[in-house]
Amino acid sequence: MEVHAADQYLLAEGERGLLEVYAALEGTGLFPPFPPVELPGGVGGLVERGGFAQTFFFPAEVLGVAFLTPGGLRVRAGGVVVKNVQGYDLVRPFVGSFGLLGRTLEAVFRLRPGRASAFLKRPWTGGFPPFHPLPRFLFRLWDELYAFHFGPEGEVARFREAFGGEEAGPLDLRPLFPRGMGVGEGPLEDLRFSWADGAPPPTVPPAFRRLVEALGG
Amino acid sequence: MEVHAADQYLLAEGERGLLEVYAALEGTGLFPPFPPVELPGGVGGLVERGGFAQTFFFPAEVLGVAFLTPGGLRVRAGGVVVKNVQGYDLVRPFVGSFGLLGRTLEAVFRLRPGRASAFLKRPWTGGFPPFHPLPRFLFRLWDELYAFHFGPEGEVARFREAFGGEEAGPLDLRPLFPRGMGVGEGPLEDLRFSWADGAPPPTVPPAFRRLVEALGG
Question: Which CATH entry fits the domain spanning A2-112: 3.40.30.10, 3.50.50.60, 3.30.465.10, 3.40.50.1820?
Fold first, then answer.
């Protein structure tokens, strides 16, 4: 793993844990584009599923990827400079491709600064309310709504006040998904999907299937 | 063209002009992800080149595209809901593919609200200074720096003060590019490229070439 604090990015191998990334960033005042929650497959699993719990456009936070296609081809896409990924973009189709384009070898995440952060939970009452300020991450786990936010001190204080609830700590959700994290009715839900153990990935559109075939062999 | 003001998106055919889009949005208080500048190829040309003058991540503002591949295949990707484009993403590789994946039939742009807007210019002194607030669009044309910003009234007023200069009006830059808008030393420059008449597109990485071949036939 490489933390480039001055340039606000981090390079992590696909097998790194998400909480390992948090540990590597401790004291830097920088945050990755995921909450302090351990999920199946670590960094690689997260990128292949298209992120977790974000309320922003996750793919834009992945500056680059290196991946191994099902046919054994190594592909390196994007880089550490945003400029590079605004044309001929193979990073974005890989993010959220649920492993169809291959397995993550490395990912480069944009880091964002926060002088404060807060991880809170409160009882789930159905639906994700439109908070102001909107926390960067929101998810339901069983019958509780969780939110994680970071940013300027005043903004995080306003988030605490708006959200209420009580403190949450880093979570390890891997035991919920012994057969893998798929899309279906389950104990975990974010703005994109409800996540269920051993459930399949979302249905693949035909045009995307062609892309898979192109990179697969 | 379809303006969906309540849902903050717009659908435009590829051949529509960029200033035509501005005209369609007049009075809505909503803005597209490009400045009031006419460029070669209108909406389609803009999407294929990956945007113009933006200081944000342009591909995320393109919610969907329909395109015709060089081999005559019609591909529809993404949609009007952000959720749909965060997995199996063929929108992002199309945006900025410089026509290699085909020609734009339709594009769906996210619209963003602004109670005020300002289009300003001032003499170019070399380089793009780090303005606060950062205007949404910045470009050099000949020996002048142009900036367009929209947003809350107070923020636009602060932009005016920080930028200085004088008022600019909508521009038609098509006469600068009778042979098409390519990447090279020229009279127009944004944060990504210097744009030159008749110049080639950026070099294509090998992995992206495979994607082109997959969708081309």
Answer: 3.30.465.10
Say yes or no for a CB contact (<8 Å) between A98 and B75. no
| Interface confidence: ipTM more than 0.85 | no
Q: In sequence order, which residues have a C-beta less than 8 Å from that of residue A106 and are 6 or more positions away?
A: A11, A12, A13, A14, A64, A65, A66
Q: Does B217 touch chain A (CB under 8 A)?
A: no
Beta bridge pairs of residue B148:
B119, B137
CB contact (8 A) between residue B86 and residue A207: no
**How far from B173 is each of B21, B46, B148, B188, B202, CA to CA, in Å?**
16, 13, 15, 9, 21
Output the furthest CA–CA distance in chain B (Å, rounded).
Answer: 53
**For A90, which of B98, B207, B215 is closest by C-beta distance?**
B207
| Distance in angstroms (rounded) separating the CA atoms of residues A83 and B193 | 9
Q: What does DSSP assign to residue A98? A: T
B97 touches chain A (CB under 8 A): yes
Task: Report pLDDT digits (tens) over B63-104.
Answer: 999 999 988 889 888 877 655 446 788 998 999 999 999 999
